[in-house]
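Please, structure for the following, as tokens.
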Amino acid sequence: MTYEAKGHLEVEDRGGVLIVRVDGGPHSLFGLDIARRLDELVDRVDHDPGIRAVVFTGARPGRFVSHADVRWLQEEGAAIPPLGRRGAAAVARVARGADRARALEPVVRKTPLWGAVQLDRLHATFLKMNASGVIFVAALNGSALGLGAEFAWACDLRVMADGDFFIGQPEILLGINPGGGGTQRLTRLIGTHRSLVAILEGKPFTPAQALSNGAVDEVVPTSDVLTRATELAEYFGLRPREAVAAIKRSVYFGGSMSLAEGLHVERTEFLGTDQSEDGQQLMLDYLETIDATGELPLYNPDTYKQALAAGRVPGRRSTNGQ
């Protein structure tokens, strides 16, 4: 049986926040169609200054995304001749170059490289999410395994439904390694040893365990998952978008480098935001408030509370909406 991609994203526009229901068919699987549509969506929102946040949730009760479509993985794997680790590394490098040369795609599709190109493209989609000024929130309305969990790990925030649900990486039980980023993203979320043991065993976390070890940010009743995820999307989405992107890039990319390299990333991002229109206006507001009141605004509890709620320190320009 030849693999047939199927699945789509249902997008609900709520102004600055998009609610995206991931529909992977009857079994809620993540296949090639979902991967393509996700890449298109990330490109769209990243270039739309009116979109501040995206909330992903499952289209069916009890499932966020079940896992990858195993037929997709199996058939693409079978199409590649047996490789050692060196050969696999070489194929991965060539696939990255082939993916960047999109004009070659019709040719690449007919070669064993195509599966590796698809994997590289999925990683690139998740990395675009990490570099974006848009906030991505996973509203886990149910269970997520494998690529479903990796999709959630790639988001900035995760709210999970309480109940008889689970999230984790079971790939070892199918004789494979996580391929959508699980070994890297889960490790960065919960630490090396916890991640290693969980992935080696293949046993998922309950909602309580996921919350305790930092794999999700909140656990709420099932009926409240989408509401709470949307609240978080709106809250974090109020912050200046250029600063959001700079902070995400500094943490996601700089945070896994050496200290010296990470500090270089931070310096680079700081210089960009320090010169931005938002940054300049908000800092001038801050200075004007000091001159007017004789006090540092963020040492006024009421002002700090207002700043957290609004995503920016209140002042003449910010309160006038300029």
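The two ends are 59 Å apart (CA to CA). The longest helix spans residues 113-131.
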